[in-house]
Write a structure and sequence with these properties.
By secondary structure, the chain is of the alpha+beta class. The protein is built from four helices and four strands. It has one domain: 3-Layer(aba) Sandwich (Hut operon positive regulatory protein HutP). A hairpin with a 2-residue loop joins strand 3 and strand 4. InterPro entries: Regulatory_HutP, Regulatory_HutP_sf.
Length: about 140
């Protein structure tokens, strides 16, 4: 199916956020950003890492800051809260696997009209025994 003809609902926006979180480099992020922008989808991505419990607030803050910086959301309470809430939802999905361990990875954020999705790609581990996880959160905001 041609991406330009797809319905840009929550499922497609979630797919875009996941792709952003899986990007390998800043160059690839820029390519994805340009590609999705042509489809009317705003995106952002940002790296993070650290001990899971102590990183939760920082991950939420980084999501909101990146979304504002890249123009995914406006600097208004409802939109900032939507990104923070979606990030918290994504964190809760990976918490059982990550609690007490170090995490590192990337946050991918995507928005089309009233759909905002945050995807967290985690490498979870201790020493060289890494596991991976993806958390996903979605919120609806007024366009």
């Amino acid at each position: 199916m041609n991406e330009g003809n797809m319905l840009h609902g929550s499922k497609y926006v979630a797919r875009v956020a996941i792709q952003m979180s899986l990007s390998d480099s800043r160059e690839q992020e820029k390519e994805y950003k340009a590609k999705f922008s042509r489809l009317g989808i705003k995106t952002a991505a940002v790296d993070y890492g650290g001990e899971f419990i102590s990183s939760v607030n920082k991950i939420i803050e980084r999501s909101v800051v990146a979304a504002k910086r890249e123009g995914v959301i406006r600097e208004i309470h409802a939109e900032e809260g939507a990104v923070a809430g979606a990030t918290r939802e994504a964190l809760s999905q990976v918490m059982p696997k990550a609690i007490g361990l170090n995490v590192g990875g990337k946050i991918g954020i995507a928005r089309f009209e009233d759909h905002v999705t945050v995807a967290l790609f985690f490498g979870v581990g201790m020493l060289h025994l890494d596991e991976v996880a993806i958390g996903l959160g979605h919120r609806a905001v007024s366009s």
